[in-house]
Amino acid sequence: MKIVRMVVVCRLLLLLLLQPEGSLGLAIQMAHQGENPAKKLMHRVQRARHPREVTRLLRESPRFIDAYVVSAAMSQYRRLGSPQEALALFAKTTAAGLDQSVSSFNAAVTAHAMLGDWRRALRLLEEMKEQRRFAPDVVTYSAAIKACEKAGQVERALGLFSELRSRGLEPNVVTYNTLISACRKDARTKWRHALDLFDELEEAGLSPDAVTFNSVISTLERAGKWELALQLFEDFQRPPRGFQPNIITYNAMISACEKGKQWETALRFFDELRE
User: What is the DSSP secondary-structure string of 43-98?
Assistant: First the structure.
């Protein structure tokens, strides 16, 4: 096992072109301080404020890069708007022989979703299902569904949702929100499905958030169902939901009323928005 780890470390050194001067001194310093070097690196990566800072930190301490560090770095790259860097790190460390974690795979699927590359996102999902070390979880499926939603692959998104349920996984609010948003892109034929998903979310004991409410109303607006949108707009604000409409909600309602030629109602919403 130690030999395998040494091979992985050596490959990482070559692939990432790491090991600047002072790295060994840093390692010795952290060892004397009784700190776990890999954990320390992971925390520093999570606090990075720029993609270049993440890269620099990895290059300064290559020997401490493990699956947890890779996952943290990929997530940070993504948060900082650099999904390409996250995928590059995933590819390099995989090629170096590092055993990736489920979190690393999830970060890679999410990065593909950000880039709108649904095919590669689903390819990674299939790869996870084929290997036996760990299985895809609800985060994996939610990210894959997001990739399909972003690319307008509504039926594929719904198919992934069915697969998620068949594997005994419980969808969360993010999963439902993404699916409702996918239905919005094909609102003319999928608006009823969006309402069913909303009902299912609440029946599962989950609490809809602003994204959920706005996605449902926007779906009805696109489907030309202004009367139903108006009814739900009022229902959503009543207890126990108590939704507080925001600018996205009002814009959707104004548009829905305009499409239904309900000019007075549209103006009322516009006045409420300005208050």
Answer: HHHHT-SSHHHHHHHHHH-GGG--HHHHHHHHHHHHHTT-HHHHHHHHHHHHHTT-
Is residue 75 within 8 A of residue 143, CB to CB? The reply is no
- The residue assigned the tokens 């609490």 is 207
- CA-to-CA dists, residue 52 to 3, 78, 176, angstroms: 31, 13, 34
Residue type, 101: S
Amino acid at 263: W
Chain centroid to CA 249: 23
Amino acid identity for residue 96 in this structure: A
176-223 pLDDT tens trace: 999 999 999 999 999 999 999 999 999 999 999 999 999 999 999 999
How far is it, in rounded angstroms, from Cα 207 to Cα 182?
Answer: 19
For the question of whether the overall pTM of this predicted structure is more than 0.90, the answer is no
**In sequence order, what are the residues at sequence separation of 6 or more whose Cβ sits closer than 8 angstroms to the Cβ of residue 79?**
none
Q: Is the pLDDT of residue 35 over 90?
A: no
Residue 12 phi, psi (nearest 5): -60, -40
CA dist 90 and 127 (Å) reads 14
Please provide residue 156's backbone torsions phi and psi, each rounded to the nearest 5 degrees: -65, -40
The closest alpha carbon to 225, from 250, 198, 188, belongs to 188
Q: Which two tokens stand for residue 195?
A: 């309402």
